[in-house]
Amino acid sequence: QVQLVESGGGLVQPGGSLRLSCVASGFTFSNAAMSWYRQAPGKERELVAGITSAGSSTNYADSVKGRFTVSRDNAKNTVYLQMNSPKPEDTAVYYCKTRLGFMDYWGKGTLVTVSS
Hints:
Shape: globular
Number of strands: 11
Strand content: over 45%
Number of helices: 0
Structural class: mainly beta
Low-confidence stretches: none
Distance between the termini: 40 Å
Radius of gyration: 13 Å
């Protein structure tokens, strides 16, 4: 079955850096676009970044442009989110997601806390 497992979350200081990973299984990863979402306490889940199946195109929320970078390694079935210069408002649970046909599949998320 489809599985998405995020890791790499934790406590990071403002201005630091953190890399999140999402390992996928149960489908042909190299054929699937992938996305990172986040949900802060009391807020709706929002799109952070997306990447096409070959990694040739990416898109970002305005709030993270220039600070976060999404990438993927199709040989490792893994998508990454490099978070540079995080801000306290980036504190959230981060999820990876893919859509296969008409179904959305989500991981269980990893918590990122940005605080000094």
